[in-house]
Design goal:
alpha+beta, elongated
């Protein structure tokens, strides 16, 4: 399950940012996961629960934005969902497509640090 190694890297990056900003805890981490990235969101959530234990993310939430796979047909300009497994054939002009617009993302988009107590 490679989601555990991905979750571990997410925790490490968030802890590093928290240290740099003097925060003791991380409240949430937001990630974008493409439909074609080969990552199962539920497995990533489970792995995050395991990887965060005993860290500054011990109570943090992992918020996943799932990004659908989309392609563009250059000859006719049609954008369309490719599905899983991806079907890269234009539904409008029936030509093969080579340009994938989205769906391969795997990125941290935000890390929310605990607010300092006053």
């Amino acid at each position: 399950m490679h989601e555990l190694s991905i979750a571990t890297v997410i925790v490490e990056r968030a802890e590093e940012l928290a240290r740099r900003h003097g925060a003791e805890r991380v409240d949430a981490v937001r990630v974008r996961v493409g439909e074609l990235a080969g990552v199962v969101p539920d497995a990533l959530l489970f792995s995050f629960e395991v990887a965060r234990q005993g860290t500054a993310l011990d109570e943090a939430r992992l918020l996943i934005e799932e990004v659908p796979g989309r392609a563009r047909c250059e000859p006719c300009g049609t954008d369309f969902a490719v599905g899983v497994p991806p079907f890269l054939w234009c539904p409008r002009c029936e030509r093969p497509c080579e340009r994938l617009l989205s769906g391969r993302e795997l990125e941290i988009t935000a890390i929310e640090l605990e607010e300092a107590s006053v």
